[in-house]
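Quick board copy: two proteins, each given as sequence then tokens.
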Amino acid sequence: MTKQPEFQPFWFQQAMDLEDDYRNNVEPQTLTADTVADVCIVGGGYTGLWTAIQLKQQQPTLDVMIIEKSFCGSGASGRNGGCMLTWSTKYLSMRRLYGEAQAVELVKASEQAVDEIEAFCLKYKIDAELRRDGTLFTATNTAQSGGLEATLAALDKHELNSWQAWEAKKVQLHAGSELHQTGYFSPVAASVQPGKLARGLKRVAEQLGVRIYEKTPMLAINDNSITSTNSNKNTKHKIVINTPKGTVYATKSVMALNAWMLEQFPQFKNKIVVVSSDMAITKPIPEKLKKMGLVDGKTVLDSRTFVHYYRTTPDGRLMLGKGGNHFSYGNAVRPLFDKATRYGKLLRESFDKLFPTLVDEEFAVTWTGPSDRSATGLPFFGKIEDVGNIYYGFGYSGSGVGQTWIGGKILSSMLLGHNDKWSDNGLTTGPKGGFPPEPVRWLGTMMVRNAIRRKERCEDNEATPFWLDKQLAKFANAAGKADK
């Protein structure tokens, strides 16, 4: 019998409680003997599952397996806010990094992802509570107003602008809060129950023939292809992955580890920052939400650097999240990520300010999720070594619910040796930029975080922030919004 964990994030626990095996403490399938595979994917979250599914869809005879150290979806994939958004608001950053043509294609791909995920869930009967009700991007103070105008003007030139300006009263009506002053609405967005989506993808992957081993951590990995001599150049299985009870011999491998990537590959230690996004959810209060105007699955985000985001659930709960709270020293995924949030007071203050009629509503549960924030706010993909066979993809920076579908497209195309728009784009050239080494990174991050907090507190009170706080806040990458 396997012991259920003492604490799991709300979405993941809710999803697992629907599964008979988990509810009855039935042991998950683990790797207990040596095995071979064409592709071994390490990590059973969205990136790993989408990659496996898209590999099998393109080449059904390929032997694909996944190993996951816990349960599929128990990491960042099953504990985010469930906001399925596009890259349209990051267009200017992508244009600067990859050029205009690439930026246009990536925005289109991110919009395609929303359509494709919705169609996939319908086709395979995944009840992920996917609601295609769009998203609201708002300003809750004067300083936040107008921040999206340059981006939308650039999108207009390519007929890519799905955003509509809404007047204050309409924004407040649909957002359920009078705190919002202005806003833009886009119908190209959705909300999902992230745990149910992850578990649904696992089921479909297995139906397609993917072998999945949970409770099977990777202990070590060796890529013999980068040291092969002419005499063994034709050896098929060059990747060796050690697990507690069996060794995997694979032709190629994918590291789909999100914030946990650095545990095995310290060469990326300065390419991301592990930062928390903290969430709280109420018990079901459907009648109160209806009175407030919160009657659908629309997601709402404000325009601050450490963004507030919220949405309702089909059973009438209200979820609020806030990013940019805990920054891990040395990028370690610490135990606090597997506990109720330590920033409950901050969440409570934000909740009460947004929803003054709900000040008496206690949170049913809170939790924390780790985000692998890159210097650009965008993910990156590639090989660990140019001549090797270990591929990677991470750095979603809190926007992975929809964009991991793109990650699966990219990684499956690279693994299959295709030369197309998925394998050859700005995201497949590895990480762009980075962060200074410790302790400079952590000390600098704390300085910038606290300056942003002071600056945004002044702006919320319609006061002028200190000059130094404004200058320090500029170091925060505008492309990297907090976890959603």
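And the next:
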Amino acid sequence: MAGSLSKEEIAAAFDKYARHVSPSWVTLAKFMGFEAVEERAEGALVYDTEGREYLDCLGGPGVFIAGHRHPKIIAAVKDQLDRMPLSSRLLLNRWQAEAAARLAEVTPGDLECTFFGNSGAEAVEGALKIARMHTGRPQFVSTIGGFHGKTFGALSASGREVYRVPFQPLLPGFTHVPFGDAEAMRAAVGRQTAAVILEPIQSEAGIIIPPTGYLRQVRAICDEAGALLILDEIQTGLGRTGRMFACQEEQVVPDIMALGKALGGGVMPIGAFIATPPIWECFRENPLIHSSTFGGNPLACRAGLAALDVIERENLPALAAERGAQLMAGLRPTVEAHPDLIVELRGRGLLIGVEFRDSDVGGLVIAGLATQRILGAYTLNNPKVLRFEPPAVITAAQVERVCQAFAQAVQQAAEMVRGLG
């Protein structure tokens, strides 16, 4: 497939993207060294229209835990495409029921009832709505630096001003407290709090892992106040951190869990929120109190079912833990060799961040990785942090390639910084 587009056609694609989609993104992509058009992908590899191979260490981010185009997931989707891609919305949809039943099996505790949407942000919107409806309370507590999506409700819960300010006033009733600070959480949660919403690990804030016991403390605070606990496992869930769900690290069960990203198996967009049966009583009187035209469609649910099957049968959480430990160990010597440039290496499983002292240096390293055809990017809420979220199917040899490329990119950045100094 090499050379499937001419240089003129590639230039035209960039021009059309700049004119009709996002000119600033084209500028940023060129700055980071990604002046190419993607064409196909397999496993942990992406190929551009000129046939060049890239190792995907961004992974969606967080979408491709099973890799690109996993054959079992592709086969399930192709089969459903030949049968019925979308639902009539009146006859019962078997695959929606099967996917919901499967999620009830794999999620912790008594999470049993699922609503399917099309994205993680949509899942958060639904979770917030049913929390209000179930409790009859108007307020929410979330965390500074948290990221839950960019729709109005999800953005109201998210905690970075650069995304919030242009759209204010947002939804009222949201209080933001420091992540990892149980006492600040306790002070904020009261009898008007419908729910606390947080990520077990803050992903877009820069892969921030809370102190041990924090999730258990928040669970207890919610119970004392009669508030619900919503855990956003959109990026951390389904194997990414070395467990099926990150909350299992502290054996914490939320009242509502939001899912997305990896749930579609890297093939179909899908989001979901799952809750306990008492909370689901809000749907009893009116099953259409919350709905989605395309949510729970047969095509996406077949992808979700196949993804859950692959994640369990191929033990991707364990693979993520193993490859993540290898990647952390391989990155650490470079991190320790450049304390003037790098603050910290942190992560769990294949959710890993490297925090630079300056975002410009991080940008140089991303560009340096791009020259070696390694795909990486910074986290949305902290541009100083370079994230690594490759598929769990990445091989040991590919991980070694990443570590070598990172060492070279950091060394080149260090030389450039010294030259400017």
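Board note added afterward: The chain has a mean pLDDT of 95.
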